[in-house]
Write a structure and sequence with these properties.
Two copies of one chain form a homodimer.
Chain A lengths: L5 E4 L1 H5 L9 H13 L4 E6 L12 H9 L6 E5 L3 H9 L4 E7 L2 H8 L3 H18 L2 E7 L3 E2 L3 E2 L2 H14 L3 E6 L6 H15 L4 E5 L6 H10 L4 E4 L19 H10 L8 H15 L6 H20 L4
Parallel strand pairs in A: 1-2, 1-10, 2-3, 3-4, 4-5, 5-8, 8-9, 9-10
Antiparallel strand pairs in A: 6-7
Helix pairs in contact in A: 2-3, 2-11, 6-7, 7-8, 8-9
C-alpha cells in the first residue's frame, strides 16, 4: 500500500464557517500562506453558500482570487450547496467542488432545508455537470457515523448513499463524522465493504474530534488502505447545524501520527505550529491540538534546561 | 476474538506518584470507591517503593488494608521495585505484583538506579519467588516505544526483554509507552511477532497520552486481539523520572471508545464522571479526558434546552 497520504486542510471552510468573530479575507490568506509554507497541497478554501446563512464565507471569490496569486501548485477545492453555488465556483476558476448529502432526513432538513432524496439528487446534478465541465468532485456523506438528531447511522444508509454517488461518477467520497460521534469499529464496518468493491483510493475520511476518537478512527482507516484525510489547523471549527460538534481533527495531530507511523504527508510539523498561531490570531480563538500543546511543552523544557545550564546568560 | 476487555485502573499508583500535593489515604480510598462503583474490577493500588523516593506511596499498607475492607471482588495489584518491596507486598496480602524494566540503560539508571541487565535480573528474581508463593506477576516493559533519553526504542530491544520475562514465567507483560512518544505502527511492529508466538491474552498496553496518540495505539492493539489496557481516571498522572510525560490515557476515554466499538469493559461511563470529580478533588488537579469534557458539554446543552423549553421554571 502507498506511503503517500493526502491531507486536505479544511480549516478555511469547515473551521471558519462557524466562527463568531469576522475573519477578513487578508487574515484568511495569511492562514493559507502559513499552511502552504508548511507543505499543505490540498486546501478546501471556502464555500459558495448564501452569505446570509454563512456570513464568514461571503468573500469566497476574493479568497479564491488571493489564492490564485499565491501559489500555482495548490489543489484548491470549494464546497457548493447546489447548482447555483456550482456555477459561481466554476466562474471563479475552481477545478474541484465538494457537495454534501447527510445520512438522515432530519439532518438534511436542518442543514440544507431539504430531504435526503432531494439533497442526493442535487449532488447528482452537480456531479453530472462537473463531469461535463471537466471539474473534479467530492461528495461529503455527512453524519456517516452519527446523526445529531437521529442517533447512530445504520451502515447500510451510509453505504447506499455512497454507492449512489459513485454510480453517478463522484471522483471522491468523504466519509464524514460530522459531529465526532463515531468510533473506529464504525469506520471498519463502513469502509470494509466499500474498499472491497471500489478499492481504497477514492475514499477520504473527514473526522471531527469532539470525543477524542478521530485519530483512532483515522488509524482504522489507515489499516484499510485509506490515504486521504481532512483536517483543520489547530482543530479549528464546529458545525453551525450540528449541536455539540467541535472542530475537525487538528492538522498537526494527524500529520504527527501519520509521519511517526512512517507515512508521508509532505507536511512539516514545525511550520504547522506557526500556522496554528496565525490561525489563532486570525480568529481570536485559543487553538491547538495535542501536538501543538506538546510542541509548546517541549520548547519550555528546552528553555528551562538551557536556563539551568547557562544560569548567567 | 473475545469481546471482554480488562481495564486496569492505575490512577492510584501511576497517577498519584508524581502529584505535588499530598493525597491522604482516605482520599485515595474515596477515589477507589468511586472507581469500584463505576464497575472497575482491576486496580493497581499503590507501590512498595522507598517513601523518600516516592512520598505519595508511603501509605501503601494502609491503602491495601482499606481496600481489603471495601470489596472482596477487586483484583488488586501493586508495583514493587525489588525483592524487598515484593516481601512487603506479600506480607500485606497482595495477590498480584508488578515489576519494571525499561528498554534502555539510561532510563533504567535514571528510574531505578541500575543497568538494564540488573533491572531485568531483579524482575526475574521477583517472578521466580512469586511463582513459588503463588502470586501473579506483571512485568512493565517501560519505554517500550520511546526512551525519554535515548529516543525511539528498537523493536528488537522490546521483544528481547519481553521474551526473557515470558521465559522466566511472567503471567502478564505490559508493553508500556511510558512517555507517550509512541505511535500505532510501533504497537503493530512490537505486538505482531509477540501475538504470533504467544497469543494475545498475556499482553497489556500501558499508554500515556502525552501526544494524543493513546487511543489510536490502543485501537492498533485491539486489531491484534489485545484485550488488556491500563488507564488512569481523568488522565491523572505523569512520571517523575520521565521528563515531559503526561498522564495515562484517561479511563473514561478508553472505556468510551471500546464500548462504542462493541467491546465489554463492564464499566459504567456515567459513574466514571463522578470518579473524575472525586479524583480532581483529592488531588487538587484539573482532570478529565476528552470524554469527561464531552459529558460536561452534553449536560450543559441539555440544561440550556430545558431552560429554553421551560423558561418560567
Amino acid at each position: 500500500m502507498s506511503d503517500k497520504v493526502i491531507i486536505t486542510e479544511v480549516g478555511l471552510r469547515d473551521g471558519l464557517q462557524n466562527q463568531p468573530n469576522p475573519v477578513s479575507t487578508q487574515q484568511k490568506l495569511a492562514m493559507a500562506n502559513a499552511l502552504i509554507n508548511a507543505g499543505v497541497t490540498h486546501l478546501e478554501a471556502t464555500s459558495f453558500v448564501h452569505p446570509k446563512l454563512v456570513p464568514q464565507m461571503a468573500d469566497a471569490a476574493d479568497v479564491l482570487a488571493g489564492l490564485a496569486s499565491t501559489s500555482n501548485d495548490l489543489n484548491v477545492s470549494v464546497l457548493v450547496p447546489n447548482m447555483k453555488g456550482y456555477e459561481r465556483a466554476k466562474e471563479n476558476g475552481v477545478k474541484s467542488v465538494g457537495v454534501v448529502v447527510a445520512s438522515t432526513d432530519t439532518f438534511n432538513l436542518k442543514n440544507l432545508n431539504m430531504t435526503t432524496d432531494k439533497a442526493a439528487s442535487i449532488c447528482q446534478q452537480v456531479i453530472e455537470q462537473a463531469k461535463l465541465d471537466g471539474l473534479a468532485t467530492r461528495v461529503y456523506i455527512s453524519g456517516a457515523c452519527v446523526c445529531p438528531y437521529e442517533g447512530k447511522t445504520p451502515v447500510d444508509v451510509t453505504l447506499g448513499l455512497t454507492e449512489k454517488m459513485i454510480a453517478t461518477g463522484a471522483d471522491e467520497i468523504s466519509i464524514s463524522d460530522t459531529v465526532g460521534g463515531g468510533n473506529p469499529q464504525q469506520i471498519i464496518d463502513i469502509l470494509t465493504p466499500l474498499v472491497e468493491q471500489f478499492g481504497p483510493e477514492r475514499f477520504n475520511l473527514h473526522l471531527h474530534d469532539t470525543r477524542g476518537q478521530a485519530l483512532a478512527m483515522a488509524w482504522a482507516g489507515i489499516t484499510l488502505g485509506i490515504r486521504r484525510f481532512d483536517s483543520s489547523i489547530g482543530g479549528l471549527g464546529g458545525c453551525p447545524f450540528a449541536p455539540g460538534a467541535s472542530g475537525n481533527v487538528a492538522t498537526e495531530d494527524i500529520v504527527y501520527m501519520l509521519q511517526e507511523a512512517g507515512l508521508d504527508t509532505g507536511i512539516q510539523l514545525g511550520a504547522l505550529k506557526t500556522a496554528v498561531e496565525v490561525s489563532a490570531q486570525a480568529t481570536g480563538q485559543s487553538l491547538g491540538g495535542s501536538i501543538y500543546h506538546w510542541m509548546l511543552s517541549q520548547e519550555k523544557l528546552k528553555q528551562d534546561k538551557e536556563a539551568r545550564e547557562n544560569p548567567c546568560i
